[in-house]
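Worked Example 4.2. Read the sequence first, then its structure tokens.
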Amino acid sequence: MRLLLFGMLFIASTACKPKTTSTVQENTASIQEKMEEKTPMSKQDLEGYETAYFASGCFWCVEAIYESVKGVKEVYSGYSGGPEENPTYEDVAYGRTGHAEAVEVYYDPNVISFTELVQVFFGSHDPTSLNRQGPDRGAQYRSIAFYKSDKEREIITKYMEALEASNVYGRPIVTQVVPFEKFYIAEAYHQDYERRNPNNSYIRNVSIPRLNRFKANFNTYLKDESH
């Protein structure tokens, strides 16, 4: 019984979700100083790069994974997949909207293709887990591959069919494949959250291990860390 209770408390303490409104405000204030050091990339900086959108659990984890991929210039954490305008982190995290935590990936198609980004997507989370990734539960953590064109939709669906035909996961894939409509960038303190908060319990126990598993399986897709 004690072991079960400890496990429940551990999961609760390492969830990608605010505990209370006051906690969110405190975290925002403490992290804001760090964010002042970061100069956001302008649209001019990102001209010439393509964009791709994915949702596969806590965006702190997903952002860090795509940031490690060669050819990726910038990644933003945010919200997508729902009808509500201007969603907030607290509303999304508590399942009060139809949005999922998602990422916006700016990439150089001459270095990394959309097909390879889709491979990264399916290879870095469990696409058979309905409305859940790790300790995070709820539709806001569902698996979604967004497409902006018929070509992208075809790439996603064909890759899913190949995974299913090979029975890679041993269970049916539940990833949603939906047209991209709008991406709402998350609050400033969420950007580069993993890199800026390495001692956070969720980052240590969930996010970093997930990133390391991805790196071990996709080492040829990684940026040269010496640069």
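Now turn to a second chain, presented in exactly the same format:
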Amino acid sequence: MENQAVSWKKVCIIAGAFCAFWIGSGVATGQEAMQFAATHGAFKGMAINILYMLLLMFMGYVLYGTGQREQFDNPYDVFEYYCGKHIGQVYLWFTVVLSYCSYVVMMAGAGATIHQYYGVSTSTGTYFVAILACLTAILGIQKLLDVIGVIGPIKIVFLSIIGFYALGTIAGNPDVLATNSVLVSQAGFKQITSIWPWSAVLWALLGLIYGITFFIVSGQVCQSVKEARMGAILGVFATCVVLSLLTIAEVVYLDLIRGQQVPTLAIAKSVAPFLTKVFAPIIVLCIYSAVASLLLLVTRKFAEDKTKKFNLLAVCLTVVGMFFGTLLPFDQLANILYPISGYIAIALIGFIIYKEFINKDAFPYKCKKASVNTSMDDIAE
């Protein structure tokens, strides 16, 4: 029987770390909720959020448990574990490239946020976040999780404020939601797909390909599969509540966010101006924690953290990312990267379902670090 010890403090830290990682530039700026959900209107947008949450909970439940159970030497070994040696290598390198591209996209989001609020150049904001994230990544995975695990709840609170203001606006003007749900599709915002259920699926698949290695390393630091899975589910739930509130807010405050790279900041400046001095740094904090996580995960493919090789690679990747993060506007980068990643993940989820629920012996893999009771059959559900 597998040890199912659970520390609620650890569960909350893991959940907070998930929130901090997931609420990067796409969520914090409002671009992700806009392109995947809000452009479909408030009612379909809420349905998208619910379906997205259920799919993401399933992925977190499985992968956090796998990370704790298998204790991979390298988090990227998860692709060989689920897909076999050859196909696993294809996914491994695609994920490395995607994670690095996401890292660049998020730095662009940081630059856009700092420029929109503080008036400094976009490149200056990008460079500032990049350097801070690099210094954090050098601290190593455990320190990173400890730091962003505290940041996560702060993000949840401040992003929720926008949603609560929107709910207050709806209470005073009940027709605004239905009216703007029609108008939002004509407002010129970029949209991932016009088919709303498919938008939710692509959103979740993007999460899979983007977050799989983070799921694995987060699960590894837990003391039991149960603890890992509880942290994942709690983190997904909290994040998706925020996304639902943001979706409603973007529909309600449609006139405020037209033409804005950072919709959340535009809303905050209008409805809660007394909070904007705090809110802008919070958005930057959201992006910084996700950027640091992605940088660490990409660099871990090539070197163990806390080594000279790791530190040198982290600095080099930061310098390159700082350059490319200033080439394209943030919304264009997000609209290009997000749907491609979702489509690539379709086959990967098939491999995961096949090994977890159909043939547990498929693609034999022996992990050097795996300790005791590594079979799924030994897990006490």
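Notes for the reader: Residues 40 and 194 are 8 Å apart (CA to CA). The chain has one domain: 8-183+194-351.
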